[in-house]
Design brief:
Blueprint lengths: L5 H25 L6 H8 L3 H7 L3 H13 L13 H16 L2 H13 L4 H29 L7 H16 L1 H5 L7 H19 L2
Helix pairs in contact: 1-2, 1-4, 1-6, 2-3, 4-7, 5-8, 5-10, 6-7, 7-8, 8-10
């Protein structure tokens, strides 16, 4: 079978991005239930055949929104163990960038709005988005504990505490307070304080 050329791959990726963005907008405007795949195709400027080829169901399309929103995290690039403050700073800044992107705010709004009628959306968001990222932070804390540079009895709780300190300032207010903005300097300060707190509590 002939593999698609680089050009055709790029075009397919561009169309996929248009579809995901259009779906996100329609889910926010009309609700997940009322936003049909046909309307998504029209908003994205692609044919229904093109959309159905990539996303045969609305659930598959929502999964793509989740994966796209969480994709820019660089989870595979785990900081090396040996310096708890340095490693947490890398992870914290990465997480801050992630939760402050508009796509992430939109995703949370869709999940919250549709939770009563479509709890499977929240499950998809958790299992395909948040959980893998959370697991990467938990695994990093385990490596620091095993290296003797952190005294952490419950890495799962510690990871929750660390990410919570960041998202509680950068993400959650943006969901409920119109016009909530955080300057880059403030974002850096939020991450740095979270790191200091973790090192003070768990540094060996």
């Amino acid at each position: 079978m002939t593999r698609p050329s680089a050009y055709h791959q790029r075009v397919a990726e561009e169309k996929r991005a248009l579809i995901v963005r259009a779906a996100t907008e329609l889910f926010l405007e009309s609700g997940y239930d009322r936003a049909s795949l046909a309307r998504v195709a029209e908003r994205a400027g692609v044919s229904k055949a093109t959309l159905f080829k990539q996303f045969p169901t609305k659930a598959a399309l929502f999964d793509a929104i989740v994966i796209t929103s969480w994709a820019e995290t660089g989870v595979a690039d785990m900081p090396p163990a040996g310096d708890l403050a340095a490693g947490l700073t890398v992870l914290g800044r990465r997480y801050a960038t992630l939760v402050t992107q508009p796509e992430m705010t939109d995703l949370f709004r869709i999940v919250i709005a549709e939770l009563p009628r479509f709890p499977e959306l929240a499950k998809a968001h958790f299992s395909q988005g948040k959980l893998p990222y959370f697991e990467s932070v938990r695994s990093y804390l385990v490596t620091e504990r095993d290296a003797g540079t952190a005294a952490i009895a419950d890495p799962e709780l510690a990871a929750t505490q660390f990410l919570g300190m960041i998202s509680n300032y950068l993400l959650w207010p943006a969901l409920v307070l119109p016009g909530w903005t955080v300057t880059p300097a403030r974002t850096t300060a939020v991450v740095d304080e979270a790191v200091r707190t973790m090192v003070a509590r768990y540094g060996a």
